Amino acid sequence: MRKGFLSLLVLTGLMLLVDARAARAGCVMDLWTCYHRAARYDTWWERTFAGIDCELDFTECTRRKIGGW
């Protein structure tokens, strides 16, 4: 139990670090704008697929800006 909690704590810390760097890189604002556009679609399916596309774009942006590859 203790080992799992420590792993979760470390993983959360790493995620917060990546999120902070992504915010500085402009990726979070791009994600927000994309979500705003996705919310305007009429059907649930269109909104869902547009939201997934936003997540993929955010991942790519974070990878490029932070990872450098």
What do you see in this structure?
The protein is an all-alpha fold. It has one domain. 87% of the residues lie in helices and 0% in strands. Helix 1 packs across helix 3 and helix 2 packs antiparallel against helix 3. The radius of gyration is 15 Å and the shape is extended. The mean pLDDT is 79.
Present the secondary structure layout.
Layout: H1 2-25, H2 27-38, H3 44-67
Quick rundown:
This protein has helices spanning 2-25, 27-38, 44-67. It is mostly helical and 69 residues long. The protein has one domain (2-67).
Strand-residue fraction? under 5%
Shape: extended
Estimate nothing, just give the exact number of structural domains: 1
Number of contiguous helices: 3
Structural class: mainly alpha
* Overall pLDDT score: 79
Order of helices and strands: HHH
Per DSSP E runs of 2 or more residues, the count of β-strands stands at 0
> Biggest sheet: strands, sense, closure?
none
Low-confidence stretches: none
The end-to-end distance, rounded to whole angstroms, is: 36 Å
Radius of gyration: 15 Å
- Helical coverage, percent range: over 70%
What features would you highlight for this structure?
single chain; 69 residues; mainly alpha; 3 helices; 87% helix; 0% strand; extended
